[in-house]
Automatic annotation (TrEMBL):
Pathway membership: Carbohydrate biosynthesis; gluconeogenesis
NCBIfam families: PRK09293.1-1
Fructose-1-6-bisphosphatase class 1 C-terminal domain ranges (all copies): 169-293
GO biological process: fructose 1,6-bisphosphate metabolic process; fructose 6-phosphate metabolic process; fructose metabolic process; gluconeogenesis; sucrose biosynthetic process
Name of the protein in its database record: Fructose-1,6-bisphosphatase 1
Length: 298
């Protein structure tokens, strides 16, 4: 179903360059996160909601763009809960930087009608997770708990083709990725870690689209970081539909994902839009930041 969502979105956006041009810019709204909503945010969110609610496989949906959970009509309900960011990195839309979609799938474990509590599951109960990357090609990366596989959209046949079976992340990489504009707001562990990377002349890469940054990290190794800051002590990225799915994929590819103090997938959420700091990527690189948090007793 998620493949169908992305395929349908690709078809709609490839019909006419003129029609696509009308979707650039702001929609004039602010979402629950306090972020300005782009026109493509609205289209992507509506597309995913419409297709998932009509799939007869889902009972609850959690979207970055919606304040509350979306309950599927009773006669259409299935047993799965899907949490998604319909268009990650949408602030980059107008400058044509790679953006994407992120999703995580849980199984409803309680009896009776679905409630918000059914969506508040830790990432270690995930059934599947993945992301779509809309860049020089359209790529889908998925795990159902048995490794990670990448699929490329073939425009000539309108289907996703397996191109990257059994994706694995290096034990250590040479790239670190984070927004260094917040350097004066980092805690001592992050500051020391980045200073150490610079001393080793590691490569610094930061796109500003989580899907693109994480995809590069999986392919080339290294670490992606979005730490807490003095201004955002709880972090910025959302647990259910950004951090959990990406942590799941990275672990399935042989890497690690942490807050610096605990495993991302072990966090028990209390809110559907809960935020968390995150460090993910090559196991050796992530372990270094964990050790620094221990050293600084943070």
């Amino acid at each position: 179903m998620y493949l169908q969502c992305c395929e349908e979105g690709w078809h709609r956006c490839s019909v006419s360059p003129f029609l696509v041009s009308l979707l650039y810019g702001l929609a004039g709204d602010v979402n629950v996160q306090g972020e300005e909503v782009k026109k493509l945010d609205v289209l992507a969110n509506d597309l995913f909601i419409n297709m998932l609610t009509s799939s007869y496989t889902t009972c609850l949906l959690v979207s970055e763009e919606n304040k509350t959970v979306i309950e599927v009509e009773k006669e259409r309900q299935g047993k799965y809960i899907v949490c998604f960011d319909p268009l990650d990195g949408s602030s980059n839309i107008d400058c044509l930087v790679s953006i994407g979609s992120i999703f995580s799938i849980y199984r409803k474990s309680s009896d009776g009608d679905p409630t918000v509590n059914d969506a508040l599951q830790p990432g270690n109960t995930l059934v599947a997770a993945g992301y779509a990357l809309y860049g020089s090609a359209t790529m889908m990366v998925i795990s159902t708990g048995d490794g990670v596989n990448g699929f490329m959209l073939d425009p000539s046949i309108g289907e996703f083709v397996l191109t990257d079976p059994g994706m694995k992340i290096k034990e250590k990489g040479k790239i670190y990725s984070l927004n260094e504009g917040y350097a004066n707001l980092w805690d001592p562990a992050v500051a020391e870690y980045v200073l150490g990377k610079k001393a080793k002349k590691a490569g610094a890469r930061y796109i500003g689209s989580m899907v693109a940054d994480v995809h590069r990290t999986i392919k080339y190794g290294g670490i992606f970081m979005y730490p807490a800051t003095a201004d955002s002590p709880k972090g910025k990225l959302r647990l259910l539909y950004e951090c959990n799915p990406m942590a799941f994929l990275v672990e399935q590819a042989g890497g690690k994902a942490t807050t610096g103090k605990m495993r991302i997938l072990d966090i028990v959420p209390t809110d559907i839009h809960q935020r968390t700091p995150i460090f993910l990527g090559s196991a050796g690189d992530v372990q270094e930041i964990i050790d620094l948090y221990t050293k600084h007793n943070l």
